[in-house]
Amino acid sequence: MALALLPTLSSSFSPPSSPYIHRLPPFTASSPASFHIATSRGSLSRSRPLEAVSGSGAGLVAAPAGGSGDPKEVLGSCATWKWKEFDVNYLVRGAGPPLLLIHGFGASIGHWRRNIGVLSENYTVYALDLLGFGASEKPPGFSYTMEGWAQLILDFLDDIVQKPTVLVGNSVGSLACVIAASESTGGLVRGLVLLNCAGGMNNKAIVDDWRIKLILPLLWLFDFLLNQRPIASALFDRVKQRETLKNILLSVYGNKAAVDAELIEIIKGPADDVGALDAFVSIITGPPGPNPVSLMPKLSIPVLVLWGDQDPFTPLDGPVGKYFSSLPKELPNVQLIVLPKVGHCPHDDRPDLVHEKLLPWLASLPC
To answer: Which residue stretches, if any, does this entry annotate as coiled coil (predicted)?
Structure first.
């Protein structure tokens, strides 16, 4: 992701007001009803009308399938789970075998806006905001790691879902799912769907790509600058301007029409939260985390890999793309489908194409 941020240093856009999202927390003091439920690992808080309640195996009732896909409507049916001492935002909708959706860098539950309704017609769809993103807590000074996000996923499965689950991830969310699946015990992960899986939490993981080697000194300089608070703050303010975000998204989406004002607000809204700058700096400058090359051979569960062929972050001809392209010949549990004219975020870029490939694969999984 750092590669896409470097050009923003020269951007000079003054953002307009948005007609789309007044990004309120999912739970407000004005909500008509609220309650608190203890769980084995933490607690759940809810402040919504009871008929709109989102829930889990911990005792709440799942919201009905379908829905408009409007991020405001999606956020309005979320709940809060206490993980360790942090608040984690999540959603549950539909009925049937559980799926857990894990977003990528800078995204959130809202990035699954085009998928939740379709998937929840036959499945119980869970989605969560990783710590540091979306409406989840962004603790100042926190050190983010891939291993930490993977543990969050495992604890969520153990505490909330409590059933064998298919993990569906995009980008760094895919890698967090791979790590979680490789460490899972007790059969809580029954399948894995990877949408353009990242090679690490940041570009420093991909050291054998000539494109990375070419600008590696620039990446080191970038890390140094980000560790200077005034510079990091100025850069982050520039990055989260709407025009800058739009340009970044247009560079990573194959379907340019999918980059709409709604998507820009999904990314921008949480970036204005307290702690968002700390998360940005920690993720870009931190350790890249475990490499999928060492983890994938450990998995015996069914794996579906969907890869957009116009992805500039993890291109098919790069080391990560080449590795995943080779896996079906080496691991019989892995299926790869290349999606033409699709970028880094296939589920939002071309959701119809993703559903066409994903739904039959899900239906084929053993119960």
So the answer is: none
Q: Six-digit token pair at 313?
A: 């972050």
Contact 127, 153 (CB under 8 A): no
Kindly report whether the global pTM for this prediction surpasses the value 0.85.
no
Contacts of 14 by beta carbon, 8 Å cutoff, 6+ apart = 241
Give the containing element (helix H, strand E) for 308.
Answer: strand 303-308
User: In sequence order, what are the residues at sequence separation of 6 or more whose Cβ sits closer than 8 angstroms to the Cβ of residue 250?
Assistant: 256, 259
Spatial CA neighbour of 308 closest among 173, 140, 170: 170
Classify strands 43-46 and 303-308 as parallel, antiparallel or unpaired: unpaired
Smallest CA-to-CA distance from 198 within 216, 168, 169, 174 is with 174
**By the 8 A CB rule, do 110 and 134 touch?**
yes
* Residue appearing with tokens 């759940």: 44
Beta strands in the chain, from DSSP E residues, in sequence order: 35-38, 43-46, 78-83, 86-93, 98-102, 124-128, 165-170, 189-195, 303-308, 334-339
**Which tokens belong to 132?**
């540091």
Question: Distances from the Cα of 256 to the Cαs of 228, 248, 249, 253, in angstroms?
Answer: 35, 11, 8, 6
Task: Quote the CA–CA distance of 34 and 93 in Å, as a whole number.
Answer: 19
Residues 140-182: tens digit of each pLDDT: 989 999 999 999 999 999 999 999 999 999 999 999 999 999 9
DSSP 57: T
210 is written with which tokens?
């000539």
Strands 303-308 and 189-195: parallel
Q: Which of 164-173, 177-186, 196-205, 273-282 has the lowest mean pLDDT?
A: 196-205
Can you point out the beta strands (E) in 142-284?
165-170, 189-195
Closest CA to 175 of 148, 156, 157: 148
What's the one-letter identity of residue 128?
L
Contact 347, 354 (CB under 8 A): yes
Q: What is the DSSP string of 128-180?
A: EPPTTSTTS---TT----HHHHHHHHHHHIIIII-S-EEEEEETHHHHHHHHH
> CA gyration radius for the chain?
19
Q: What is the DSSP letter of 207?
A: T
